[in-house]
Design goal:
mainly alpha, 5 helices, binds zinc ion
């Protein structure tokens, strides 16, 4: 079970990543942002934080390794499942 502090920290981190991606995008390319898979992944991770199922693998429902979340906060999969993909 992830602590509220940890979730808040991941949320801030993900929001910074979103802002960074948006700052890199030309305003004339707004459409491409929705098609950016990285952007979508981060958006999904933020949604999962809101829904309370962040940190659980979308494939096997096990908790994702914290080390992995630290490194790749937007990941929806645990290490074992990511390897099988
Ligand atoms: Zn898994």
């Amino acid at each position: 079970m992830l602590s509220q502090e940890y979730l808040a920290d991941r949320k801030a981190h993900l929001q910074n990543k979103l802002l960074y991606i948006m700052s890199k995008e030309d305003s004339t390319q707004v459409k491409s942002l929705a098609d950016n898979p990285r952007f979508a992944k981060i958006k999904n991770a933020l949604q999962r934080i809101e829904d309370g199922d962040y940190g659980y693998c979308q494939s096997c429902q096990q908790e994702i390794e914290k080390q992995r979340l630290n490194y790749l906060p937007e990941t929806p999969l645990c290490l074992a499942c990511a390897k099988n993909h």
